[in-house]
Design brief:
heterodimer; A: about 170 residues; alpha+beta; 5 helices; about 35% helix; B: about 425 residues; mainly beta; six-stranded mixed sheet; about 10% helix; about 40% strand
Chain lengths: ~170, ~425
């Protein structure tokens, strides 16, 4: 159900964007040349209806707020409850060709730091792969890993480890 | 240049001609078979800011291979300049006697002289002399301890080496370098973001490490002489696990620039990158064999992380660890015969060693969360990170597992990611 609403909202946005010039006095969409670098992604879209990533009034805002995908132990399989997260961001990238995202994979703290960096990379790669299947361009997505170095939770419990086995999308 | 001046000012010279005297002391290397040695307080050292004798004694005790005997006050004080009655020391069950003195020189400098005797054979084992500033006697003491260690055990001492490690205090990370006894810590890099995997260049002039300050791991090399650093591997994705080739001209690194985590060779100076492994697995933690011809690494190509070896020239990788479900972080001993690594057994991560000729393996520690083993340059000790009471500490154990581990910790901070440096080049 949520998914349908999100898709509908997305369709409305697309329709709104394609009608140029806009009637609400906003500037037309510019195919801005996005400066490189992780912090400089937000260029196009913002001037019209606000940035869907940051503007709470944007119809896509809510669907793009979830930016973490959690994984099982020693696994890079994207669980069904996180498929909508991946799909929403994949569509956003597909429809905003000059936006870029950095996917940071993470692992829990058990074992070798470098091998855990590899596990985090594998998770980030899995998210990237799924997003490209859904129409995002591989060039828009950089997958990297923080391994076990940036835990969200620092207790030695299974719950905590689960929070740390994740991929974060950073725009 | 400064290095050259330091070498000259140290003024190393052998005092006696018996430097090549053969030893009759059995090399045991075991904590149960420690060599009893008497070290007479160095005559005149009370005028120095710090005791030379204490530094020597602490070095030898830390090695686990010596037991220092109490030397009662003598009148006149024993020194390199006084006659010694070795038969009296035999009665006190000393296998060796060290004596020395500190002598003021022109310009405020001091000469430190030292002699070593084989007590059972009643023979001189030579000695050393150094002329230094009075506040520079700590390196001299380490050199004397190295001399004693080598004469009495047959192995080169590592007391003049340094180690690198990462201190995490609150949100701050520091890459530090300290003397092998933990003294004189210097901070090479301070960061709010993690630092891992420091690796010494073979000549000890640079440390490569991984920093997360750019939202992704990047491999840098830090020059200890200039304090400057440069990016060695800064490709999109992850750049990590640097390991220097024995000639210092290349590094093996783990990169994800083509997807996955794979091992590549890069040049230490300038561009050039060459892919070494080609799998869909995680291939990481490369470490060069001392002959530079093969690389040991961790891979989960067989389903669980295990240690493999591959020729640097390319070719098939062969699996090295054959038992267990999790064997990672390979490091090869300087003689190429022993592999140290981390083995997971029943939920415990422990330092293990594998005899590469026989395939025999042995767990060395009884801790739970060991990481990052690192051989001393003489191969006799292994430095590693572990956790004690929820705190990250460093530990040193003998590579035969016979000496009880010693711990190095920093108050109110975690210490991790140790790397034992090479022999000093002077």
């Amino acid at each position: 159900m949520k998914k349908i609403i999100a898709v509908a909202a997305f369709a409305m946005l697309i329709a709104g964007c394609s009608s140029t010039p806009t009637t609400d006095g906003g500037a037309p969409v510019q195919e801005g040349t996005a400066p490189s670098g992780p912090s400089a992604g937000a260029v196009d879209g913002r001037s019209v209806a606000g940035d869907p990533l940051n503007d709470p009034n944007h119809p896509l805002y809510k669907s793009l707020q979830a930016r973490s995908v959690f994984f099982d132990y020693d696994s890079d399989a994207i669980k069904s409850e996180f498929v909508p997260v991946v799909e929403a961001h994949a569509r956003f990238l597909r429809d905003n060709a000059n936006r870029k995202v950095l996917i940071q994979g993470n692992a829990d703290e058990r074992g070798s730091r470098e091998y855990n960096l590899g596990l985090g990379q594998r998770r980030a790669d899995a998210i990237k792969s799924r997003m490209t299947l859904l129409g995002a361009n591989a060039g828009q997505i950089e997958s990297t890993s923080l391994g076990e170095e940036k835990p969200r939770c620092t207790e030695a419990t299974e719950t905590c480890y689960g929070e740390n086995r994740r991929g974060d999308l950073v725009y | 240049m400064t290095l050259l001046i330091r070498v000259l000012s140290l003024g190393l010279l052998l005092l006696a001609g018996q430097a090549h005297a053969q030893l009759n002391i059995e090399i045991t290397g075991g904590g149960a078979n420690q060599i009893p040695i008497a070290i007479a307080p160095f005559a005149g050292e009370s005028a120095l800011p710090a005791s030379i004798t204490q530094v020597i004694e602490a070095d030898l005790a830390r090695s686990g291979r010596f037991r220092t005997l109490f030397v009662p006050p003598q009148n006149p004080a024993l020194s390199d300049a006084t006659a010694v009655d070795l038969s009296a020391w035999r009665a006190r069950t000393a296998d060796a006697l060290a004596v020395g003195g500190v002598y003021p020189q022109a310009g405020g400098r001091v000469e430190v002289r030292f002699k070593l005797y084989d007590v059972p054979r009643q023979a001189s084992l030579g000695g050393l002399s150094f002329t230094v500033a009075p506040n520079q006697t700590r390196p001299v003491a380490h050199r004397i301890a190295d001399y004693i260690y080598e004469k009495l055990t047959g192995d080169r001492g590592v007391f003049s080496t340094r180690m690198a490690y990462v201190v995490k205090a609150g949100p701050n990370y520091q890459l530090q370098i300290a003397d092998a006894d933990g003294v004189n810590p210097q901070t090479a890099l301070s960061s709010r973001e993690p630092i891992i995997s420091p690796a010494w260049s073979p000549d000890g002039s640079q440390i490569a490490y991984v920093s997360f300050e750019n939202k992704r791991p990047v491999v840098y090399a830090h020059s200890l002489q200039t304090g400057q650093r440069r990016a060695l591997a800064k490709f999109p994705g992850s750049n990590s696990a640097p390991a220097w080739s024995p000639d210092g001209r290349q590094l093996a690194v783990a990169l994800s620039k083509e997807g996955g985590t794979q091992i590549y060779l890069i040049n230490a100076d300038g561009p050039g990158v060459q892919r070494l492994t080609r799998t869909r697995a995680i291939d990481t933690e490369p470490f060069f064999a001392p002959d530079g011809r093969s690389i040991y690494f961790t891979s989960d190509r067989g389903g669980s992380p295990q240690i493999y070896r591959t020729p640097v020239s390319g070719g098939r990788a062969e699996r090295v660890t054959l038992s267990g479900s999790y064997n990672v972080s390979p490091r090869v001993s300087p003689d190429g015969r022993t592999l140290a690594y981390i083995a997971r057994e029943g939920g415990r991560f422990q330092v293990a060693v594998l005899d590469l000729a026989s395939g025999q393996s042995q767990v060395l520690t009884d801790t739970q969360r060991d990481e990052s083993p690192s051989f001393a340059p003489n191969g006799k000790m292994i430095l590693y990170a572990t956790e004690v009471g929820g705190r990250g500490v460093l530990s040193i154990t003998s590579s035969d597992g016979r000496v009880n581990p010693q711990r190095l910790s920093v108050p109110a901070a975690d210490v991790r990611e140790p790397a034992w440096g090479p022999y000093p080049s002077n």
